[in-house]
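Entry, Tuesday afternoon. Goal for today is a structural model of the target with zinc ion bound, before we commit to ordering more compound. Inputs were pasted exactly as handed over by J.K., no edits. I checked the ligand SMILES twice against the vendor sheet because last time a stereocentre got dropped in transcription.
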Amino acid sequence: MKNPLIFVSTCPSCGRQQLQHGHTRRALTKLIESRQIIDAYCLECDVVWAVTAEERAVIAGAITTRQGSMESDCVTGLIETKQQRPQAAQ
Ligand SMILES: [Zn+2]
């Protein structure tokens, strides 16, 4: 696939963060610009859901900040921030 933009979305069924690589950057740009639903998928649960507003914002940010000539991007910022939250609360 051409320029897949990989992002994470939390599965509503198992609560795990699942990597999403079914959308190209171009497709995601189109979905965000036209305010359409971006769907995510969990292989383990076989569930499809719409990404949250927070996740959309992360994707939008990844689209606008191009990282040089990388062929694909992986949005890992959300994984790090979400994993740090429970630890900080303890
Ligand atoms: Zn799941």
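Helices lie at 25-33, 53-64, 77-89.
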